[in-house]
Amino acid sequence: MIIATDMPEVAKCVISQCAYNADDGCHARAITIGEGTDPDCDTFFDNSRHTRSSRTAGVGACKIGDCTHNRDFECTADSIQVGSRGDAVNCLTYTRH
Ligand code: SF4
Ligand code: SF4
């Protein structure tokens, strides 16, 4: 079995209402970007309880095939940032082809 350890880091996320967020960081093990055709954080989970983990999340999967950083529905950027764009929780590193 091969275990991927080279995920791009979620360098910053300012969505403080998400359960995985603390101190402008994402502390999930891995997140998925892409909901429909939008580069939303699909792992976003609005909750009053917050993780106690201090790990930095990786980008496990990304469904946004039209981003220049996407290869085979995975992210190849060194790191990404997540924040709000309008009402949505977006990958701010998204760059359309
Ligand atoms: S990147 Fe997504 S899952 Fe992580 S804290 Fe931000 S909104 Fe939540
Ligand atoms: S930078 Fe592009 S490929 Fe990487 S997570 Fe964001 S939208 Fe997906």
Topology (elements, then pairings):
Layout lengths: L8 E5 L7 E2 L2 E2 L3 E6 L2 E4 L16 E5 L7 E2 L2 E2 L3 E7 L2 E4 L6
Parallel strand pairs: 1-9, 4-6
Antiparallel strand pairs: 2-3, 4-5, 7-8, 9-10
The chain binds iron/sulfur cluster (2 copies).
Pfam families: DUF1540
Organism: Microbulbifer taiwanensis
Protein name: DUF1540 domain-containing protein
Supply the key terms.
binds iron/sulfur cluster, mainly beta, globular, three-stranded mixed sheet, 97 residues, 10 strands
Concise summary:
This protein is mostly beta strands and 97 residues long.
Task: Write a structural description.
- This is DUF1540 domain-containing protein.
- InterPro entries: DUF1540 (IPR011437).
- Residues 12-44, 62-85 form the DUF1540 domain.
- Pfam families: DUF1540.
- It comes from Microbulbifer taiwanensis.
- With 97 residues, the protein is mostly beta strands.
- The chain has one domain.
- Helix content is 0%, strand content 40%.
- It is built from no helices and ten strands.
- The protein has strands at residues 9-13, 21-22, 25-26, 30-35, 38-41, 58-62, 70-71, 74-75, 79-85, 88-91.
- The strands form four sheets. The protein has a three-stranded mixed beta sheet with strand order 1-9-10, with no helix packed on it. The chain has a three-stranded mixed beta sheet with strand order 5-4-6, with no helix packed on it. A two-stranded antiparallel sheet has the order 2-3.
- It is globular.
- Residues 33, 39, 59, 62, 64, 67, 69-70, 75, 77, 80, 91, 93-94 line the site of one iron/sulfur cluster.
